[in-house]
Specification:
alpha/beta; TIM Barrel; two-stranded parallel ribbon; 8 helices; 38% helix; binds zinc ion
Length: 203
């Protein structure tokens, strides 16, 4: 069983993180784990079609490997955020190594936004990110679980009915998520537009 909405307990424990957008009439689309030369261009074309500006939380190593795809994200007016250098899990990584990874990724990604991979970050890491590195740590309210290959895209589309105004949504521009992403993203955008939501990327 997969959870689509972030648990209230987590939101309470990390109160200084950003969990929701400020506009209740808007939806905030975010894409994690790219850039990827096969998947990111698809996302960019969908966003172009629906005139949506989104936020991409990029893995430093992917920006290093695919600078032209990263450049395309910026060129099309989207926001970017830091998602560590190698997608480290904060809970399983020593604090100094974790912060070093974020700083390393900052050499490739110029942004004050940060999203911890898996949403996992230790209290010490969180404090350093906010106080020393001056990052805004962005979590989410609704995650598509698109990377889960045991999950059908029809299930994701069904669960998208639970999306509410102000929600920060997570999809992944990664190969793992490619099938579910391509099968669900446009349909979910259309569903949300029918509910009269607009899309923003300034949380
Ligand atoms: Zn990630």
């Amino acid at each position: 069983m997969r959870f689509f909405r972030s648990p209230l307990l987590a939101r309470y424990l990390i109160r200084k993180g950003i969990w929701k957008g400020s506009d209740k009439n808007a939806i905030y689309l975010t894409f994690d784990d790219g850039p990827n030369p096969e998947v990111t261009p698809f996302v960019l074309s969908v966003l172009r079609k629906y005139k949506i500006k989104a936020t991409f939380f990029c893995v430093g190593n992917n920006v290093k490997n695919y600078p032209e795809v990263y450049g395309q994200i910026l060129e099309e007016g989207h926001r970017v955020g830091n998602h560590t250098m190698f997608h480290e899990n904060g809970i399983k990584t020593a604090n100094h190594a974790y912060i070093e990874s974020v700083e390393n990724a900052s050499n490739y990604i110029d942004s004050d936004l940060f999203r911890p991979p898996y949403g996992k970050v230790s209290p010490t890491q969180f404090k350093t990110l906010v106080k020393t590195l001056k990052k805004k740590v962005v979590f989410w309210t609704w995650i598509s679980n698109d990377w889960d290959k045991t999950l059908a895209s029809s299930e994701i589309i069904l669960k998208a009915k639970s999306i509410r105004g102000g929600d920060i949504l997570v999809f992944h521009d990664s190969l793992k998520a490619q099938k579910n992403l391509t099968e669900s993203l446009e349909i979910i955008i259309q569903m949300l537009q029918k509910r009269n939501f607009h899309f923003k990327n300034n949380f």
